[in-house]
Amino acid sequence: MSKKLSRIMMNCLAVLGLPTLASAAGTYYTGAGYQQPGQYRYGQAGTYATSRGTTNSMASIRNPGYTQQNPNVRYQVGSMEPQRQVTSNTQQKTSSRSGFYANAGITHESAMWRFEMKNLANSILHYDNLSWNVLDLNGGYIFDLGNVKIQADAGIKYGMQWGEASMVDDDITNGGYGAYTYDVATVVGHGLSIGTSQDGSMFGFNVGLGLTDFMKIGNIKLTPSIGYRYMKTSLETKNNYGMLMDTVDGGCLTGDGESQCGVALLFYTNTSDSQPAAIVPANDVINISAMPHYISATDSYYYEQLGTSHSYDVEWSGPYIALDMLYDINQNNTVNGRVELGFPGYTATGDQPYRWDWAHPKSVQDTAGMFSAFHIGLASSWHTALTNAVALSVGVTYDYYTVGNADTETYLNQGLYNQLMAKDDKSDNDLWVIGQLEAKHNSCGGWVCKSTKEVDSVYKSMGLRIGLDARF
Asked: Which of 226, 236, 238, 300 has the fewest CB atoms within 10 Å, counting from its CB?
C-alpha cells in the first residue's frame, strides 16, 4: 500500500514540476547568434515513462497534453533526481544559425595616454586618470555556405570623458630642453606644468570577416577573423599651472645619488649688452664685487594658463586579426572571449595656443605608417538568455596601443610673421618676434620643422561592459 501511494505522489509531483522546468529553458547565445535548445512540447497526447518501463495512466489523466521529448531521462520511484543514460543520443550543441545578429552595450573605461619626445624638447606628456563612458552598437550577418559559415560584422562606438583628469607636461624628467647657448656657457630649460582635462570625446568603428565556428574543441567554438579598426580620442587641457627654471649646463651639484641645480644667473657689463659676460649657477659662491655691473636671472618663473593650453587628437587605424571563443555552459548561459592583434598607423595632432611661435590650430603632428604601431585587445563576457531572442551580457575589456619612433612635424606661425611684416610701424617687440621666427625658419629650412623617429606613444584602457544581444 505504501509503495503504491509513493508512486502516485511521485507522479503528481512530476506532472506539476516538469512544465515549470521546461518553461525556464530558453535559447542561449553563441556570440554570433542564438541556438534553439531541445525544449519540451505541449498540446499533444502522451505518456509518462517510469523507471520500470511501464505506462502510468494517472500521469496521462492529470496532464493528457504532455509529451516527454527526451527518452534518456528516467525518474526513479521515490526520487526526483533524473538518471541519464549514457548513449549516443545525448544533447548535441549545433553551430550558430545563419541570419542577422546585433548587440549594444555601455562600457565604463579607465585609461591613460602618454607620449615622449626624445630630442626636440626632451618632454613627456601624460594623462594618467582618464575615464570614459562609451556606447557601442554592433551587428552582423552569418552566411550559410554549406560546409562553411562566413560572418560579416561591423561596429561603431562613441564615448564621452567622465569627470576630470589631470595632465602633466614634464620637461624635467627627460632632461629638459636647450634654451640658450652663449659663448661662455649653455643654459638648459626645465619646466613642469599640471592642468585639468574634461569634456573629451572618443570615436571608433570596425569592420570584419570571420569563419563562424571554424573549429570546435569540446564545448568551445573558435571563430577566426580579419578586419579593420579605427579609434580616435580627443583631449583638451585647461587651467594649466607650471614652473619654468633655467640652469647652467653642467652647473648642478651631485652627491649621494642626488643632484641639485640652481637658477642660472647672467652677469652683464652694462644694460646695453645683448650677451652676458659670465653665466654661473646661483648656488656657486660668487664675489659680487668682482662681477660686471648688473645681474639678471634667466627665464625662471611661475605661470598660469587659465584657458586652453593643450589640445590633442590621437588616431589609431589599421588591420587586425582576431580569434573569438565561445563556451557553452548550458542551454541558457555562455561565455565569450576575444583576442585581437592589430597593426595600425598612428597620428597625433596637437594645438598649443599659448605658443606664439607655433601655428594654430595645428601646431604639431606626429605620424607613423600602418603596421608601425601595435594594438592588443582582450575581451571576455558572460551571456544569459532573457527571452528566445534577447540575452543579457556582462564583461570586461582591455586595450593596449603603442608606437615607437614616430616622425614629428612642428608648424611655425607663418601667419603671425606675415602680419608683423605688413605693419608699417613695427615696435621693438615686433622686430624681436620677426627675428625669432626668421631664425627658426632658417634653421628648419622652411615653415615646417621635421624630425624622424622622435616620438614614443602609449594608450591603454580597461573597461566594464553591460549589454544586450539579439538574434533576428
From this structure: 226
**pLDDT tier for residue 6 given thresholds of 50, 70 and 90:** very low
Please give the pLDDT value at position 120.
75
Question: Which one is the CATH code of 102-168+201-240+312-412+447-471: 2.40.128.100, 3.30.428.10, 3.40.50.620, 3.40.50.10540?
Answer: 2.40.128.100
User: Which residue, chain included where needed, has cell 607663418?
Assistant: 414
DSSP letter string, 58-72:
HHHHH-TTEE-S-TT
Measured at the alpha carbon of residue 168, what is the angle toward residues 162 and 170, in degrees to the nearest 5? 160
User: Which residue type sits at 159?
Assistant: G
Average pLDDT on 148-158 reads: 97
Q: What is the DSSP string of 213-260?
A: T-EEETTEEEEEEEEEEEEEEEEEEEEEEEEEEEEETT--EEETTEEE
Q: Is the pTM of this model over 0.85?
A: no
In 10 A of CB 447, how many CB atoms? 16
Query: Which triple of cell numbers denotes residue 362?
Result: 595645428
**CA–CA dist 211, 229 (Å, integer):** 18
Q: What average pLDDT score do residues 42-64 get?
A: 35
Sheet with 264-268: list strands edge to edge.
278-281, 264-268, 294-297
Flag whether pLDDT at 37 surpasses 70: no
Provide, rounded to the nearest whole percent, the portion of the chain with pLDDT above 70.
77
Q: Would the pLDDT of 13 be above 80?
A: no
**Where, residue-wise, is CATH 2.40.128.100 in the chain?**
102-168+201-240+312-412+447-471
Distance of CA 33 to the CA centre of its chain: 26
